[in-house]
Design the sequence.
C-alpha cells in the first residue's frame, strides 16, 4: 500500500513539474517576442503593437500569475502574427 501511494505521489510531482516547465517555456518565449519588438525603434511600431505591449506590461503587473502568463502568451503570439 505504501509503495502504491509513493508511486502516485511521484507521478503527481512529475506532472506538476512538467506543467511549471511548460509555463516557464511559454513565458520565456513571450518575453523573447517582446525583446524582438523592443529592438525596433518605437516610432516605427504599428499602433496594434503598442497596444499589445501595454497589455503585456499590465498583465505582468498582475498579482494573478497564471492570468498574467496566459495574457503574455496571447500577446506574444499576436506580436509575432503582426510582425511585418
Sequence:
Amino acid at each position: 500500500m505504501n509503495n502504491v501511494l509513493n508511486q502516485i505521489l511521484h507521478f503527481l510531482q512529475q506532472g506538476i513539474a512538467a506543467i511549471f516547465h511548460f509555463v516557464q517555456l511559454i513565458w520565456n518565449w513571450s518575453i523573447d517576442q517582446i525583446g524582438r519588438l523592443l529592438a525596433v525603434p518605437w516610432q516605427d511600431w504599428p499602433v496594434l503593437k503598442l497596444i499589445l505591449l501595454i497589455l503585456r506590461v499590465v498583465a505582468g503587473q498582475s498579482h494573478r500569475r497564471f492570468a498574467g502568463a496566459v495574457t503574455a502568451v496571447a500577446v506574444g503570439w499576436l506580436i509575432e502574427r503582426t510582425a511585418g
Q: What stands out?
A: The two ends are 59 Å apart (CA to CA). The longest helix spans residues 2-38. The chain has one domain: 23-81.
